[in-house]
Amino acid sequence: MIPLFHDFTDATVLVVGGGPVGARKARRFAREAQVYVVSPDFGDADFGDAERIRAAPDPVDVPGWLERHDPALVVAATDDETVNDAVVDAARDRGVLVNRADRAGSRDPGSVVVPATVEDPPVTVAIGTGGTAPALSKYLRQELEDALAGAGEMATLLAELRAELKAREVDPERRRQVVTDVVNTSSVWTALRTGTTNHRQVIDDVLAEERLGGESR
Ligand SMILES: C[C@@]1(CC(=O)O)c2cc3[nH]c(cc4nc(cc5[nH]c(cc(n2)[C@H]1CCC(=O)O)[C@@](C)(CC(=O)O)[C@@H]5CCC(=O)O)C(CC(=O)O)=C4CCC(=O)O)c(CCC(=O)O)c3CC(=O)O
Ligand SMILES: NC(=O)C1=CN([C@@H]2O[C@H](COP(=O)(O)OP(=O)(O)OC[C@H]3O[C@@H](n4cnc5c(N)ncnc54)[C@H](O)[C@@H]3O)[C@@H](O)[C@H]2O)C=CC1
């Protein structure tokens, strides 16, 4: 499987099945997409900003649901294999992405798997086991959570530093060296993690060292 980061802004995601798994996927996608969850019951799970639609489509009804909602991705999360099969078939017919929650190991070609993720925005680390061992994905996610501390601030720092070096017409080779040196400096990581400095201060220090201080912002 090839990992990709997909922007779901303004996209629709249809989740079929409103149990705990459907709810988890709905919450995840509703952070970015317009999410509809179709299910005869919803329990007391948290569906985030997803919209719930009370219905229990039979397999033959499934293509109509995709037709009406025109999703970019559909999640098959019912406990009825025939319905999940129909969701996969309908998604394939329409050429839309499909995530099947009730199957690991034997994936359908073209399917997508939802990874475990560690986030420190704008940084995201996604962990997958090729669909084979989700409990391991969850374990590794927990292990990696501390390792990522400060990465979000570092990303902001490097992006701004790169833009400022460009604006000052520093040649690409030097620019690359400066950015690479900063990301490899452990004292910068420690300072960002402990909050003793912020990304702006580091940029100003680097520009001063490069004798590039002054206002070009
Ligand atoms: C293929 C996949 C399809 C998909 O859903 O995309 C899939 C399928 C299945 N999961 C099952 C079980 C569990 N899943 C979890 C947890 C997560 N499962 C997630 C993803 C995926 N699960 C995809 C593969 C990802 C990969 O490549 O590793 C995570 C990472 C993301 C998310 O779902 O948001 C999320 C962790 C989020 C986090 O915490 O960070 C736990 C742990 C727990 O609940 O504590 C258990 C119980 C322990 C166990 O059984 O392993 C079962 C068996 C059901 C049964 O009992 O029959 C199936 C179906 C089957 O195996 O047939
Ligand atoms: N991907 C994952 O992380 C995991 C996947 N699973 C698998 O995913 C499936 C769903 O898991 P849970 O949410 O725990 O199951 P669940 O049984 O609690 O929920 C299934 C939901 O689907 C609904 N449903 C049934 N027929 C439907 C239809 N025709 N149309 C729409 N909704 C319908 C049910 O009313 C129920 O709300 C399970 O069958 C299991 O195999 C289970 C645990 C974790």
UniProtKB/TrEMBL annotation:
Which Pfam families has this protein been placed in? NAD_binding_7 (PF13241)
Q: Which keywords does the record carry?
A: NAD, Oxidoreductase, Porphyrin biosynthesis
The record's EC number reads: 1.3.1.76
Any GO BP: siroheme biosynthetic process
Catalysed reaction(s)?
precorrin-2 + NAD(+) = sirohydrochlorin + NADH + 2 H(+)
**GO molecular function annotation:** ferrochelatase activity; precorrin-2 dehydrogenase activity
Q: Which Gene3D superfamilies match?
A: NAD(P)-binding Rossmann-like Domain, Siroheme synthase, domain 2
Q: In which pathway does it act?
A: Porphyrin-containing compound metabolism; siroheme biosynthesis; sirohydrochlorin from precorrin-2: step 1/1
Please give the InterPro entries that the UniProt record associates with this protein. Met8-like, NAD(P)-bd_dom_sf, Sirohaem_synthase_N
Which top EC class applies here?
A: oxidoreductase
Instruction: Kindly provide the name given to this protein in its UniProt entry.
Output: precorrin-2 dehydrogenase
Q: Which organism is it from?
A: Natronosalvus rutilus
